[in-house]
Amino acid sequence: MTGKGKSRWANDEEDAALEAQKKREKEEKKRIKTEKARKLEEEKQAREAKERKAAEAQRQDHDEDEDATRPPAKRRRISPERESATAATTTGGSSKLLRFEGGAFGRCRSVENYDKLNDIEEGAYGWVARAEEKTTGKVVALKRLKIDPKDRSGLPVTGLREIQILKDCDHRNVVKLREVVVGDDTSKIENIFLVLEFVEHDLKSILEDMPEPFLASEVKTLLLQLASGVAYLHDNWILHRDLKTSNLLLNNRGQLKIADFGMARYVGDPPPPKLTQLVVTLWYRAPELLLGAARYGQAIDMWSIGCIFGELLTREPLLQGKNEVDELQQIFELCGLPTEETWPSFRRLPNARALRLPPKAPGAASGSAVRARFPLLTGAGVSLLNSLLTLDPERRPSAREMLAHEYFRQDPKPKVEAMFPTFPSKAGQERRRKRQTPLAPVRGQAVELGSVDFSGIFSGRDREERGGGFSLRMV
């Protein structure tokens, strides 16, 4: 019996080797395909990472540009005791935010908290009255801002500036603002009052009633306080722009305070290129303002101080012009004619181009007449007054330079404030009588002088021979 035979379809060793080779080739192709897919994925991820990095850099550049024009964002600050105690945070304790106590906006108090006692005066920008606070009995000055109810622009810029400047100022020679109060009828914008510290006198009323002028030591004390207050204002970039004796208050302890900031404003260095020319009361207005200067600085306040200096010596305003032309004429008669040497930029001012000035004759007296006007003033005093009343604003001293002047170191020394004489207070007892002093200018257009002839203002000067304390007229 024979055994069963092998099928011809059975796999032999050759078939097995071939099958194994095909399997290896298939796995190799799969590996190559997988490796290619992996490389493509890596390239894609690298490309996306590069794009994200470029976008992040661009966004940072943009943020830096924005940060240059806006304040930095605030970070949440943690109080030190909570920040150092890390155990409290790990055990579930919450960190406490760092907080500071600060003021908050609220309603203004009512003017009904004050009892009006009497009127004091009316100025260009408000009415002033004496009042008493009901709860404390403290006497204050109430200034009601002048606001036209028909004006739809709201609170005038002069009132806003006065409130802002008075709230920012803290100096013993500047009047203090206690608060701002309103009337009960808040629908009327004109019922806005400034509550100021009450000061018994102003220099104008004292000078009008004094039988004799201030002593030299008293004048020095008043000027030192005035220069100290103005130096503080100028150091803080504030121009008063209406210094005059009626805006200088004096209490019964000999302390002077600068008041009435209705025309004051903040300025920078250099000052704004275009400022209003219609500032400062006429008798205290600097010549560059009268000639139409649109750019000015601290020198206009220093000119006003010079006018106040002369008024303290004579008890009457130094330059009482009837209008802008007459004021200029009186300035030139006292301080001399402007020349290329004394005031190089004079002719470039708008209102100076049409002025006709007399020719300077050899030997003619056309310079400053301050020495002849104040024969009893010391040499240092004349030097200080001449420097304050210099026509060229660039040559006037600053308030700090004025405080260091030799005039205040000479005898007689400035009087101690506590030794100042006292006067009956008009503001505290009765209505102030109407003054003849011109009011501060109202905001508007600048004054055009036109063609003015000053050629004859020094006629007759050559017939005078001036000496110290007297004048001789040749006949």
From TrEMBL:
Tell me the domain of life.
Eukaryota
SMART domains in the record, alphabetically?
S_TKc (SM00220)
UniProt region (Disordered), positions on chain = 1-96
What sort of enzyme, by top EC class, is this? transferase
The reaction(s) annotated as catalysed by this protein in its Swiss-Prot or TrEMBL entry are: L-seryl-[protein] + ATP = O-phospho-L-seryl-[protein] + ADP + H(+); L-threonyl-[protein] + ATP = O-phospho-L-threonyl-[protein] + ADP + H(+)
GO molecular function term, any single one: cyclin-dependent protein serine/threonine kinase activity
Which intervals carry biased composition (Basic and acidic residues)? 20-62
Recorded hits in Gene3D superfamilies, A to Z, give:
Phosphorylase Kinase, domain 1, Transferase(Phosphotransferase) domain 1
EC no.?
2.7.11.22
Q: Which family does it belong to?
A: Belongs to the protein kinase superfamily. CMGC Ser/Thr protein kinase family. CDC2/CDKX subfamily.
Species of the source:
Cercophora newfieldiana
In its UniProt record, which GO terms are filed under biological process?
A: regulation of mitotic cell cycle
Q: One Pfam family from the UniProt entry?
A: Pkinase
Which segments show compositional bias classed as Low complexity? Answer: 85-95
Residue ranges of the Protein kinase domain? 114-408
Official protein name in the record: cyclin-dependent kinase
